Automatic annotation (TrEMBL):
Keywords: Transferase. The keyword Cytoplasm does not apply. This is GNAT family N-acetyltransferase. Residues 26-169 form the N-acetyltransferase domain. The keyword Chloroplast does not apply. Gene3D superfamilies: 3.40.630.30. SUPFAM superfamilies: Acyl-CoA N-acyltransferases (Nat). One of its GO terms (molecular function) is acyltransferase activity, transferring groups other than amino-acyl groups. It comes from Nocardioides anomalus.
């Protein structure tokens, strides 16, 4: 019975990935030959603005694919418009680390199709979890990862990569939030079927949540309260990319304020339990 259930879970994952690709108008497939891998290098170099020092190299991708790791690409009318790269954890951890993903096309549907292809690829190989990191200040990515995909926040990592100085990160510290995507979890399966439901900040406030960090009138962070227990809301700026380009000092204030709020609340037993798409992390169980 268990084997039948696992097979059915994998079948549904493949079907969900196929449906997501059709909805996005792309074809998603594994990549291994040199021409395709060169396309991934060029795509990422353009997205991150690192033509002279791309985020991944052809040699590394070639080695990854030879060793059985994941490199997938999304194609629209034969043109590569998105790619995702992952490598396996230590043998006993039953997990893939999704190191980098980028989409040149507009809209989030291509990214969704890529992640669902990666999920089905991993499940076909008996892998139970995919982990990755993202910048907690980027609200669209927080919503995409925690709600649209149903991943679970696991750890806050201050300045994880050190200085990056590219078109997306600027000179800001490279704080990251590590998430774990438990591929067979019913919540994840619902999300991948397009039935994800995120928390509502107004509902949380109505039931007693406190604001730990909000948005001030100047667009900067407005500290709330970190004392007490229960549920807290931690806000992020509407568009951190624009802030980094136009007001890097305020962007840095946001980095430090979100870091302080999330690490303090998680340090007191809180769990980051979702993200309201209006720009709020919901942290529950703070003691």
């Amino acid at each position: 019975m268990t084997e039948l259930r696992v097979a059915s879970d994998v079948d549904r994952a493949v079907q969900a990935a196929d449906a997501a690709a059709r909805a996005a108008g792309v074809t998603v497939r594994d990549l291994a030959d040199l021409a395709d891998l060169e396309g991934v290098v060029a795509l990422f170099a353009g997205i991150w603005g690192r033509a002279e020092n791309p985020p991944v190299t052809l040699e590394l991708l070639r080695a990854f694919t030879k060793a059985g790791n994941y490199v997938g690409g999304a194609f629209e009318d034969g043109r590569l418009v998105g790619a995702c790269v992952g490598f396996f954890h230590a043998p006993g951890e039953d997990a893939l680390h999704s190191h980098i993903a980028g989409v040149a096309a507009s809209g989030r549907s291509v990214g969704f199709a890529l992640k669902l292809h990666q999920r089905s690829w991993a499940m076909l190989r008996g892998v139970g979890e995919i982990a990755w990191t993202f910048d907690p200040l980027v609200s669209r990515n927080a919503y995409f990862n925690l709600v649209k995909l149903g991943a679970t926040a696991a750890e806050y990592l201050p300045n994880f990569y050190g200085p990056m100085a590219d078109a997306l990160n600027g000179d800001d510290d490279s704080d990251r939030l590590l998430v774990r995507w438990r591929l067979g979890d019913p919540r994840v399966a619902l999300a991948c079927a397009g039935e994800s439901v995120g928390p509502s900040a107004p509902d949380e406030l109505a039931t007693g949540a406190a604001v730990a960090l909000g948005v001030g009138g100047d667009g900067g962070p407005a500290p709330g309260r970190l004392d007490g227990s229960g549920t807290f809301l931690v806000g992020v700026p509407p568009d951190i990319g624009r802030l980094r380009a136009t007001d890097p000092a305020t962007a840095q204030r946001w980095r430090l304020a979100v870091r302080e709020a999330l690490t303090a609340l998680v340090g007191r037993g809180g769990r980051i339990d979702g993200f309201d798409r209006a720009g709020w992390y919901v942290v529950r169980g703070v003691r």
